[in-house]
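Lab notebook, bench 4. The sequencing result for the construct came back, and we need a structural model before the next group meeting so we can plan mutations. Quick request posted to the team channel:

Model the 3D structure of this chain.
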Amino acid sequence: MPFNIIDLGQSDYLKSLEFQENILKKVFEGKQNDSIIFVEYEPIYTVGKNANQDNIVTVPDKNIKIFDIDRGGDVTYHGPGQLVGYPIIRLNKYQIGIKHYVNLVEQILIEVLAHFGISAHTKPKYIGVWVESEKIAAIGIRVQKGITKHGFALNVNTELSYFENIIPCGIENCKMTSMETLLNKKNDLKLVQNIIVKSFNNHFHEL
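Done. Here's the predicted structure in token form:
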């Protein structure tokens, strides 16, 4: 059965987290199909539950908020031009574990980037997706009640200078890139989103 797709557009971070929790509750109660929430944020930094706070080196603008959240992973940046996806998926339905799920999300994002002519890959020691030596997508999840929450952030048209204020994902000397940088043009977030949805449906249909 295809995923229920919810596009929040540009949204306040805390409101989107509350919305995510409501969808997770409905999926858990069987009132909602497995879902993927898409959202775009104003500039913020989020810090995972096991993160090193020192990985926020400097915040140049006091109006940029920092949120401590219950996902895995370290510190990352979210902002305009970045496509954030929150898959709300019952893993037991597909009989897969957390590691398999994370690997699937990585492969889906690699497949999506290939659609645009970008050759991406994973790294053995790190979670996420890379183009050569630069990171283009971060993944940080939590499983609650057997259901995934939080998810991935793909740099589509992201302003990369914000990453200079942090040690992204806690990886020293980690350089970030974006589809815009690699393709030298702005990209339609809705088009990227649609291709992600198609890839999710294809991969999970095969399980």
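Residues 47 and 75 are 4 Å apart (CA to CA).
Will bring this to the meeting.
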